[in-house]
């Protein structure tokens, strides 16, 4: 029946919706009540969770992950080697391990920047049908990138290229959006600037304004939103002109672009955790010392960009860029810790992983605990509102409820507990 009652905790139901000694009642997989005790009668026989001494939150959303990446932290390999040497079924199995780690950390929804032909669409559908356990997945089947663009340069030179690994020109870009829609895309991801792969520079724009406009026009015609990987000022400017729905990373955002994003309602997904992990532990996670240094400026500028965006009123959505061993699955809450460190209140930070992320996904029934919301909730030992760091210790996640089902027992049996707690600031 997917009926469950969570009783006695500190409830964060959404921004400024805090209740102590609260009750959350989920019936048929949907929230029917969340608030002070006594607001509803819970039928006898309903499964109950005692949340005394805990914080109850909506299931959290990470809006930028690379799911089918290396899950074996005892066997660190460079990302390009992993992409080139691991089979597609092998990548999917790594992705399932990563999905379980995210779920065990309280992230019940992931927005997946997909890898071509690996099977993330099929995994999404299996989970949705109840044939596999995992977080909800919103999937872009693969990126749209130009020849010699970010994405094309992810792959080692010896990797054979296939048709539609790249798209050049307006008509090829339109065609690739249509192919991805037919594949079952939940959204479209386009590479609108360079990045940090070998042979490219982050300040390079990728794609002309007309190519980007064609991608957005075609996607929007089919009710698909467009996420633009855009670090450079020119890449961001062209993306906004084209009408994308979100800027991913946005490291070199300027005040003019931030104001334009706020005016248009464009979301920013800063992905600060990736650079943070790389600066701290990059050489132990498959990067060279030169690679870590190359990321330093983007890391520092992302901090400035976050401040510009907040001052301009841009809606911020949490995304980690979780990617194998470089930015580990299970450590997603580090992104929220960084938001608080760089000026957000805890309420603001939690909103980025709940209501803001739900708005980006076009799913107002996610990211909140109120009448009619999807019954995704987590029970976290301690007071998250007083210390956001509590959320980042996976052992504090006592219960993970997805669609009214407590999956905690399953996750404890199938997912090893990995300690990613950051113990000291650099």
TrEMBL record:
One GO MF term attached to the UniProt entry: hydrolase activity, acting on carbon-nitrogen (but not peptide) bonds
InterPro entries for this protein: Amidohydro-rel, Metal-dep_hydrolase_composite, Metal_Hydrolase, Metallo-dep_Hydrolase, OTAase-like
Boundaries of every Amidohydrolase-related domain copy: 55-405
Pfam families: Amidohydro_1
Name this polypeptide is given: Imidazolonepropionase
Organism: Pseudonocardia ammonioxydans
